[in-house]
Each structure stands twice: as C-alpha cells, then as structure tokens.
Design a protein that fits this description.
By secondary structure, the chain is mostly helical. It is built from 14 helices and three strands.
Length: 363
C-alpha cells in the first residue's frame, strides 16, 4: 500500500515498500529478485524478450531520466534544456547558481540507498551519479512547476519549446512514466524540500504537481486528485499506479510465482469473453466476473475516431493471409463489375452515330 508524506505529510499511514507488485523470481543464490542486500530495489530494466519486440515502447524517446539511458548521443540536446530548467528552478526560489553543488552535497549521504534502488550495478562514479540525480530531479520539479503555473495561468511560458510545442509534452509525459526512466522518489522529495519546501503551506506539494502534470493523460476530476496530495511512491511510475488504483485487490494479494500474460482482446472475444464499458475515476479499475470484462471509458472520443474504424477494418479483413486474398479478390470483382457497368451505360447514352448522307463515302 502507498505511504503518505512527512512534513506536511506528517501522518505516515502506510508503507510504500509493499506496494511494488513484481514477479517473484528465485535467484541462484536463493535470494529473491525483489530485494538487494535487504533493501528492495524498485527500478528495473524491461526484460529483453519484451524490449526486443518494440524498444520505443519501453525506452525514452525525448528525455532520459536516471542512469539506464544516460549519455546516449541522441539525447545531447535535451541535456541543455535540463541545465536551463535547473537554473530556472534556482531563479524561481531566488537561489544562486552554485546552489546545485549544495544539492549534490545533500544527496551524497544517500548514494548507497540510490544505487540499491536499481536492479543492476551502476558503473557511474560517485560524483557522476549524484550530479545526474540533481540535474534530472531539478528538471522534473521545474517541468512540473512550469506546467502547473501554465494551467493556472500564473505565467506565460513564452516560446519555451518544451511547453509550447504541442507534440513535446505528450512525449515527455510518456517518457517520465516508463519503468527504465526513473529516479527514486526520495531524491525528488529531497530536492523539492531544498528548493520549494520553504514556501508557505498553500503551495502545492510534490505529489500535487506530479498529479497535475500527468492528469493530461488520465483526465481525472480535481476532487479525486486532492485525495492523493500527501501520497508518495517509490518513483513516479509507482506513484501513478498507486494513485490510479489505490484499492485494487491486486495490491493486497501476494505476487504470483509465474507471470501470466493477458491475451489480446480479439482472442478474449473469440474465447467468449464479453466487454462492458464502465465509468470510473481510475482507468485502471478493471474487473472480471462471470465472463464479463469491465473496462472504464478512458477516451470516449475513440468511438468516432477514424483510426479505430480503420483498425477494426484491418482486424476484420486482413487478420490472416486467406482473408486478405478473399478481400483482394472481392475488390477486383467489384472493380470489374463497375467498369462493365460504366461501359454499358456509356454505350446506351452515346450510341454509335449513323453515317452522314452528304459525305463522299456515302455517295
């Protein structure tokens, strides 16, 4: 179950360590894959069998966060934006530029704890890892702040491409919600306390800012979001999962020893499973009972979206080689019939003209 925050989160109601639902794999040394030297790691790499199918679904497209994709050449430009956002965060709180060094010193004692959050050994040196955490953490906090103030119309983002270009924000949101693209929540919270924690109590918490930022994707009412203003997670993705499905029976059950993959919707339909739309606050509130799978309507507009109809058309007529051949043959027959009809009508309305009697050939 999720844990609530300290300071303005003074009531610790639940433990965050038990919320991470992972496959319990026994290691060769007899230890569990869900722990590292007694401290549970929570940031994993996606299994190769899944990432090879579609790497772009699991790896960042625009911004790398944390050590797994740090330093890749395609992300060199975004590193400049991270530096700019970090300085904007300092300017927002009237702090000098050299304050970033103090942030690194504040995180230094937690280095071992940071390393143990990741499921594999990190090859970064001590200073490199801490500087990465400071830069990525300050970037995330300032991104949340800029977006929050933009929604509240407190400031004009000007020509900041990360906020004004319509295609950038969706990519940023998806990247920040990917498993391999995470830093520990306690790092974000520590940096938040060092930068914005001195503000008055009316200022939104880190949880408020995160919920507001990601609400563009899930679109929940403000009253639902207020319930989680003092919640925490192990990282951003875990926080989103907890706040979107806090009462799920899954979080209360022991993890299964074997991973069971869910079949595609068309196979479930062929097996007799019926689908029923529901209206719930959380898009993760999925229930199955008596052969009926109840799924919330996350985006009702898809009923009129041409991509949905096109996908249905492909699934109906191009699901196999024989259905494709049948569809092509039917199309050819229809085209030939249309051509034949065209010439028949053309001949009827434009009969062959009779010879001109005055012409020399007629004489």
């Amino acid at each position: 179950m999720p844990r609530k925050a300290d300071s303005r989160r003074s009531q610790t109601a639940r433990s965050g360590s038990s919320s991470h639902h992972v496959v319990n794999v026994e290691m060769t040394d007899g230890s569990s894959a869900g722990s590292a030297n007694g401290i549970g790691f929570c940031i994993f790499r996606v299994p190769q069998s899944l990432s090879e199918i579609n790497q772009m679904a699991y790896q960042p497209n625009t911004v790398p966060i944390g050590p797994y994709h740090h330093g890749k050449p395609q992300f060199q430009k975004i590193q400049e934006h991270k530096q700019r956002f970090s300085l904007d965060l300092l300017n927002r709180t009237n702090q000098k530029r050299d304050k970033l060094k103090h942030f690194a010193e504040a995180l230094k004692p937690t280095e071992e704890k940071i390393r143990k959050c990741y499921s594999e050994a990190l090859a970064f040196k001590s200073d490199e890892l801490i500087e990465m955490m400071v830069l990525d953490g300050c970037f995330i906090i300032e991104l949340f702040c800029k977006y929050y103030r933009k929604l509240a119309r407190h400031t004009d983002p000007g020509h900041d491409p990360l906020l004004t270009e319509p295609w950038v924000l969706p990519f940023l949101m998806r990247d920040l919600a990917k498993l391999e693209n995470q830093i520990p929540w306690f790092v974000l919270q520590r940096l938040f306390d060092l930068t914005l924690g001195c503000w008055n109590e009316s200022h939104p918490s880190l949880s408020d800012l995160a919920l507001s930022f990601f609400n563009r994707m899930v679109q929940r009412p403000d009253n639902d979001l207020k319930k989680y203003s003092d919640w925490e997670g192990e990282h951003l993705l875990n926080f989103l999962r907890l706040t979107n499905n806090p009462d799920s029976p899954e979080t209360k059950q022991k993890p299964n020893k074997f991973l069971r993959l869910i079949q595609p919707a068309n196979k479930l339909h062929q097996a007799g499973i019926k689908f029923k739309p529901t209206h719930c606050a959380s898009f993760m509130d999925i229930k199955f009972s008596n052969g009926v799978l109840e799924i919330p309507d996350v985006n009702t507009y898809i009923e009129k979206d041409w991509r949905v109809h096109w996908a249905s058309f492909k699934n109906t007529y191009f699901s196999s080689r024989w259905s494709l051949i049948s569809a092509v043959a039917a199309f050819l027959l229809l085209a030939l019939a249309a051509i034949q009809s065209f010439f028949a009508v053309r001949t009827y309305y434009q009969p062959q003209s009779s010879p001109n009697p005055s012409s020399p050939n007629h004489q």
